[in-house]
Write a structure and sequence with these properties.
The protein is an alpha+beta fold. It is built from four helices and eleven strands, in the order αβββββαββββββαα. The strands form two sheets. The protein has a six-stranded mixed beta sheet. β1 and β2 form a beta hairpin.
Length: about 180
């Protein structure tokens, strides 16, 4: 009989803790990645699954930062070479053979896109970092910098805002018109 009471008490405590966890506001967390030697933070709520860098099929007439398309779990995803898109690296060809991993955008963003990053670093908690403001120009989807306990600067990306940015959505390469008329 004592075991049943102890089990019931345990179940009640667990149910209470789960209810309290649901009622508390969720803390923001980031997936930390490296691109072109720079530290970037992606909100966990906006990042999707992580995939190994596999076969990417090139797309003709695409901008240099669109690496191509990849089949991820049976669905086609546009693969954006994030360091090239952000201007941290000149082109994918300059970097040599493609290495890294793919971070898919969360399905809630309604865009089948994955970001090629150089390296996954881990998870970061804003409670262990300090905001570092800068007046340097940056795209709207790049927020203020964050400095970690080791002194490294990280830039936070708003993936939802980036996924709606006209520059991100415009993947077609358009040749420049000739200055010489024929």
């Amino acid at each position: 009989m004592a075991n049943k009471d102890a089990l019931r008490d345990l179940q009640v405590r667990l149910a209470n803790r789960l209810r309290e966890a649901r009622e508390q506001p969720r803390q923001v967390g980031w997936l930390a990645v490296e691109c072109g030697g720079n530290g970037l933070l992606m909100p966990l709520a906006q990042a999707g699954e992580i995939h190994p860098l596999g076969r990417i099929t090139k797309v003709p007439h695409a901008k240099p930062w669109l690496a191509g398309v990849a089949n991820l779990r049976g669905e086609l995803y546009a693969v954006v070479d994030l360091p090239v898109f952000l201007g941290l690296q000149e082109s994918a060809k300059a970097a040599g053979p493609a290495q890294g991993q793919l971070v898919a955008l969360n399905a809630s963003l309604n865009l089948n896109a994955a970001l090629r990053v150089d390296r996954l670093v881990g998870l970061r908690d804003p409670e262990h970092m300090k905001v570092e403001h800068s007046d340097a120009p940056r795209p709207g989807f790049v927020s203020a910098g964050w400095r970690d306990a080791q002194g490294r600067l990280w830039q936070a990306l708003d993936l939802a805002q980036m996924a709606n940015d006209p520059a991100f959505l415009d993947v077609a390469h358009r040749p420049q018109a000739s200055a010489i008329k024929q």
